[in-house]
Write a structure and sequence with these properties.
The complex is a heterodimer of chains A (317) and B (479). By secondary structure, chain A is of the alpha/beta class. Chain A is built from 13 helices and 8 strands. In chain A, α5 links the parallel β1 and β2. Chain B is α/β, with parallel strands linked by helices and 479 residues long. Chain B has 2 domains: 266 residues, Aldehyde Dehydrogenase, Chain A, domain 1; 180 residues, Aldehyde Dehydrogenase, Chain A, domain 2. Chain B is built from 15 helices and 18 strands. In chain B, the strands form 4 sheets. Chain B has a 7-stranded mixed beta sheet with strand order 13-14-15-12-11-16-17, sandwiched between helices. In chain B, strands 8-7-6-9-10-18 form a 6-stranded mixed beta sheet, with helices on both faces. In chain B, α8 links the parallel β9 and β10. In chain B, α3 crosses α4 and α4 runs parallel beside α5. The longest helix of chain B has 22 residues. Chain B starts with 22 loop residues before the first strand and ends in a 6-residue tail after the last helix. Classes of the chains: A alpha/beta (317), B alpha/beta (479). Chain B: GO terms for molecular function: oxidoreductase activity, acting on the aldehyde or oxo group of donors, NAD or NADP as acceptor. Chain B: Keywords: Oxidoreductase. Chain B: InterPro entries: Ald_DH/histidinol_DH, Ald_DH_C, Ald_DH_CS_GLU, Ald_DH_N, Aldehyde_DH_dom.
Chain lengths: 317, 479
């Protein structure tokens, strides 16, 4: 079978480990040369003037402002939350970011700081970034983050199990995490830099969607390569095909390495032309980034003021 | 489809970069001269406006140009050491790069192709051909045609309007590298970049007469081909004209290469990487508005995936942006001339009349200029005109097959044989199909990829002889 599946095929696919394997291995192959050529071609779109201003504001509203350092403190998270609430205090019309993304032990601080602002709190969980812990430990991590008030959970998949072909195990684990998430949105991190092939990225994307992930996310940001345009193209194709098969809209989040406005706009062009215009919303597309926001703010000012003001005019948090 | 909240603002390249002049003159014996013919008017196909007036040659100019080329051949070019010829070719290649933006804008104005393609494909590939052949100029003894192969003499070359500068590079670079001199006639509708190329020859200090450019219509091409002073004829264009040239040249001892029409089959097997196959199909037929002799104009899809593939293909084609060729975001530009647009329209209408199902992209088209929306015919049968005749426009004919053998039989059932494409994840199937297909170029899991190192040419009514690579040198050497 080389077709995008029907919904009855999807329910068959998750019946047991063997049918899941059969399904994932029947997905259309990915040709590396063609995929990378398409990604490079779309990256040459020229976005200017009104289209650029719209893109900058949209990109700001899609940022998951992230700090995931071992050295993170409550003070650091508070500073980040202040930035998330008001990205550019001198220009109050600047959109807010979508979420602040922190480790689970700092989720409570972020929740407190962002209460009533509409900015979501995302917490990484499941023994981020390696994902190497007993399932009970991973689930406890998620429960802790949800209890602290995080309304978005970024989980990592067990890449060891995936590469060993134990798809059922990965599937069950995502299901189990989704169950303890409650109302919190689940983002499934595939860590595409460790999956080795584009075929694997496509299979992992479908696995994440089949198991109920609300978003599929490229990377933890701790592994190189992190997000790339070709990988994001593939994941956008997966959510588009998922929509065609089920009618449901799921999201995509590239994370890691997207540092400037030019790159962000290239991703937005891919969203627009690969998945489709309905994905151009923070509900369905996010950027996982820490330094991207400042470049977006500087470029926003450049567009509005007609001149470049420099990095000292935006906060460094 | 959901209405897009994001409209890309127009991002037009400036026309001024082209340094467009009100009139252009022909180039003979190292000088720009007035021609004896009635001047041509070169038109911007995106607007219908006249871009410039171009001097055109008459028969006496053909004679003068051939004599200039002969004299340059005898006195300097054929006796010059290969290392010296190489320096000129490298210089030309670098000048094409340096003036790349100017040439890209000029080419887009004159031809109607999107600036994205002239900037990213035509001009860089033209420069690459000069670089590649510059490397051969002093190594001809190692090309496999004997220790000291000799040039043929004066080459008369006639090129088409679909890739004006690139086709010039394909013709002139190997001719000069091998020690021949050249009289080239660019297409009537697209002479401008060839005349700027003449400036580049002057800038490079090329000895007078080595390259001569004669704008004109078909009669000048015919006079050039028939001129007794010409030792070698190279033509790229329609099969009909190619046949006339072959008749003219027969028995004269002139060497001849022809690169003519095509109706390439792009075969998609059921195990193909579908998303990339869709990209390849789009690139195969909508690149340069389908004005490509090796365009993948017949899509052969295995029945088991046909519906799925067509759905994906239509969704993709809807995203193609048709419009102002100078806009950097335009994917499909203008049809080169009113005449060509009429021909495409007529052939597409024959598809309706013969019972194929037409689907046209809902994209908006500009009000002025010559445009044709990307079109896909499904339910096409082998016997229909749209499956047999070259349309040379953004029109794709889709046929289906059940078995690999049927795919090959249908793909080869054409008087042409220039190119073909295979889409499959199975290596053994690709190799098997490539061996069965009668086509000069067979692409696997890609389409329309060009490189100066890869020979290009056809079978049957697509012509003979090869251009590019080591094989391409043979056409310009006495072997």
């Amino acid at each position: 079978m080389a077709q995008s599946p029907s919904s009855s095929e999807l329910s068959d696919a998750v019946r047991d480990d063997r049918s899941l394997r059969r399904f994932l291995h029947s997905l259309p192959g990915v040709d590396q040369v063609g995929l990378e050529q398409r990604a490079a071609g779309l990256a040459t779109r020229s976005i200017k003037k009104d289209a650029k201003r719209w893109a900058i504001d949209t990109a700001i509203s899609m940022v998951d402002l992230t700090t995931l350092e071992g050295a993170d403190t409550e003070g650091k998270v508070r500073a980040l939350c202040a930035k998330a609430r008001r990205p550019d205090p001198e220009r109050p019309d600047t959109p807010r970011v979508a979420a602040v993304c922190v480790y689970s032990d700092l989720a409570a601080t972020a929740v407190q700081e962002l209460d009533g602002t509409g900015v979501h709190v995302a917490s990484v969980a499941t023994s981020f970034p390696s994902g190497r812990a007993a399932r009970a430990v991973k689930l406890a991590d998620v429960e802790y983050a949800v209890a602290a008030g995080a309304d978005e959970i970024d989980m990592v998949i067990d890449r060891g199990a995936f590469l060993a072909g134990r798809y059922g195990q990965v599937f069950d684990e995502i299901r189990a995490v989704k169950a303890v998430c409650g109302d919190a949105h689940l983002k499934v991190i595939l860590e595409t830099g460790e999956l080795a092939t584009y075929d694997n990225v496509r299979r992992a994307s479908w696995l994440g969607l089949l198991a109920g992930g609300d978003f599929i996310k490229t990377s933890t940001g701790k592994v190189s390569p992190a997000a790339t345009l070709p990988v994001t193209h593939l994941m956008l194709q997966a959510v588009r095909d998922w929509r065609d098969a089920t009618g449901e809209l799921r999201g995509v989040k590239p994370a890691g390495g997207i540092r400037n406005t030019k790159d962000a706009i290239r991703y937005l062009v891919a969203v627009h032309e690969v998945a489709g215009p309905e994905w151009l919303t923070p509900e369905l597309f996010r950027f996982g980034a820490s330094s991207l926001l400042n470049d977006l703010l500087m470029q926003r000012r450049t567009q509005l003021d007609g001149h470049y003001s420099g990095p000292d005019h935006v906060a460094v948090d | 489809m959901t209405e897009s909240p994001w409209e890309y603002a127009p991002a037009p390249e400036s026309r001024d970069i082209a340094n467009l002049k009100p009139s252009y003159r022909m180039f003979v014996g190292g000088e720009f001269t007035d021609g004896g013919g009635e001047p041509l008017k070169s038109i911007d196909p995106a607007t219908g406006e006249v871009l410039a007036e171009v001097a055109s040659a008459d028969e006496s100019d053909v004679d003068t140009a051939v004599r200039a080329a002969r004299s340059a051949f005898d006195s300097t070019w054929s006796t010059m050491p290969g290392t010296e010829r190489a320096k000129y070719l490298f210089r030309i290649a670098r000048l094409i790069q340096e003036r790349g933006r100017e040439l890209a804008v000029l080419e887009t104005l004159d031809n109607g192709k999107p600036i994205r393609e002239s900037r990213d494909a035509d001009i860089p590939t033209a420069a690459a051909h000069f670089f590649h052949h510059a490397g051969w100029a002093d190594k001809l003894g190692h090309a496999g045609y004997g220790p000291d192969p000799r040039p043929l003499g004066v080459a008369g070359q006639v090129i088409p309007w679909n890739f004006p500068l690139l086709m010039l590079a394909w013709k002139i670079a190997p001719a000069l590298a091998c020690g021949n001199t050249v009289v080239l006639k660019p297409a009537e509708t697209t002479p401008l970049s060839a005349l700027v190329f003449a400036e580049i020859c002057q800038q490079a200090g090329l000895p007078p007469g080595v390259v001569n450019i004669l704008p004109g219509a078909g009669d000048i091409g015919a006079a050039l081909v028939a001129h007794p002073g010409v030792d070698k004829v190279a033509f790229t264009g329609s099969t009909e004209v190619g046949k006339q040239i072959q008749r003219t040249v027969a028995g004269t001892g002139k060497k001849l290469t022809l690169e003519l029409g095509g109706k390439a089959a792009n075969i998609v097997f059921d195990d193909a990487p579908l998303d990339q196959a869709v990209e390849g199909i789009v690139n195969g037929i909508f690149f340069n508005q389908g004005h490509v002799c090796c365009a993948g104009s017949r899509l052969l899809v295995q029945e088991s995936v046909a519906e799925e593939l067509l759905e994906r293909l239509r969704a993709r084609i809807r995203t193609l942006r048709v419009g102002d060729p100078l806009d950097k975001n335009t994917d499909v530009g203008a049809i080169n001339s009113a005449e060509q647009l009429a021909r495409i329209t007529e052939l597409a209408d024959s598809g309706d009349a013969e019972g194929a199902q037409r689907w046209t992209s809902p994209c908006p088209l500009p009000e002025r200029g010559f445009f044709f929306a990307p079109t896909v015919f499904s339910g096409v049968q082998q016997s229909m005109r749209i499956a047999r005749e070259e349309i040379f426009g953004p029109v794709l004919s889709v046929l289906t097959f059940r078995t690999p053998a049927e795919a090959i039989a249908k793909a080869n059932n054409t008087p042409y044989g220039l190119s073909a494409g295979i889409w499959s994840e199975k290596g053994s199937r690709i190799l098997w199909a490539a061996q069965q297909l009668r086509a000069g170029v067979v692409w696997a899991n890609t389409f329309n990829r060009f490189d100066p190192t890869a020979p290009f040419g056809g079978y049957q009514e697509s012509g003979f002889g090869r251009e590019g690579g080591r094989a391409g040198l043979e056409a310009y050497l006495d072997v």
